[in-house]
Amino acid sequence: MDFSCFLSGMIRICTEPVLLFFWWKKKHARLFPALAALIVCFPVFMIANGIRNGFAHDEFYAAYLKQGLLYGIFEESAKFLMLRFALESYDSRKDAVTYGLGHGWLESFFAGLSCFGLIGSGNAAPDILLVNLWSAIEGALSVAALTVIIFYGIRTGRSKITLPAVILIHAFSNAFMGIFRFSTPIVIGVMTPVCAAVCYAAYRCWKALEDPYGDEY
């Protein structure tokens, strides 16, 4: 079981960096947006965590719903503000994917540390490896897909639709996985098709922004 904890931690910590490496190597993507996202995530998560700690936890469902909406607003709004105003020169679809992976890595990093913390404790769940393998893949795909949708809204002037949409998707995902954390089959069974739907929407947005006459950086 300790090896499963170690392997789970390595998977969570390494997934986004490995994906970024191949994204850079195969697609010649620029890596600075990932670094910018990582830097911005620190204050965003700190502020959101501070607000969350002030929530009353006497109502189980309400607490997770409020938490989901809180992180949805903070994380997706931060992505929008960075892509819209701070990274104007990083304006390709590939930059959006890079930014999304960088944004997602911080949370994955701390999840990996939590896995390492279970080594030798005897408290690790039997399915820890399966859960973290799925979480690593689903998390990386979802965060990149939602960022592409935000980028699409910025490029097409439809942010009034896309930004609230991704906030609500993020809020639902966060709340659902918290409420049903006791059941891996429920979480995976519901969130896998949700992730697939988000990825398909992102693919449509990606294709809609394709310029057959342009050389995207």
Task: Pick out its properties.
217 residues, mainly alpha, 7 helices, globular
Describe the structure.
- The chain is globular.
- The longest helix is centred in the middle third of the chain and has 29 residues, at 128-156.
- The model has no long low-confidence stretch (mean pLDDT 94).
- The chain contains seven helices and no strands.
- With 217 residues, it is mostly helical.
Task: Annotate the secondary structure layout.
Elements: H1 2-27, H2 32-53, H3 60-86, H4 93-117, H5 128-156, H6 159-179, H7 184-208
Helix pairs in contact: 1-4, 1-5, 2-3, 2-4, 3-5, 3-6, 4-5, 5-6, 5-7
Helix content: over 70%
Estimate the mean pLDDT confidence: 94
The string of secondary-structure elements, in order, is: HHHHHHH
Q: Could you list the spans in which at least 5 consecutive residues all have pLDDT below 50? A: none
Note the main sheet.
Answer: none
Tally of alpha and pi helices: 7
Measured between the Cα atoms of the first and last residue, the distance is 45 Å
Number of strands: 0
Class based on secondary structure composition and strand pairing: mainly alpha
Shape: globular
Radius of gyration: 17 Å
Strand content: under 5%
